[in-house]
Amino acid sequence: MDLREQTVAIAVIGVTGSGKSTFINVASGSNLPVRTSFGSGTTELKSSTFSLDGQTVVLIDTPGFDDGTLSVLEVLKLISDHFSGL
């Protein structure tokens, strides 16, 4: 199979407020919500799909670690469940 026919999915992970959503918006041209005050703006997985050099790329925005809403284990489970369903 030609690599260009495959979709590449990348989970963007990090601590709360590190710029995950902003990075995805800049890289993909999307408009995911970005929180401007301290705290988590992302509480569930959201994705942005775009094409790069003929390759379909999906950037997956994840809740931040250490935000007090979800534990690290809960965030990792969300990511794991998402990728197991692909």
TrEMBL record:
GO molecular function per UniProt: GTP binding
Stretches assigned to the G domain: 10-66
Recorded coiled-coil stretches: none
SUPFAM superfamilies, A to Z: P-loop containing nucleoside triphosphate hydrolases
InterPro entries registered for this protein in UniProt: GTP-bd, P-loop_NTPase
Cross-referenced Pfam families: MMR_HSR1 (PF01926)
Official protein name in the record: G domain-containing protein
Source organism (scientific name): Boletus reticuloceps
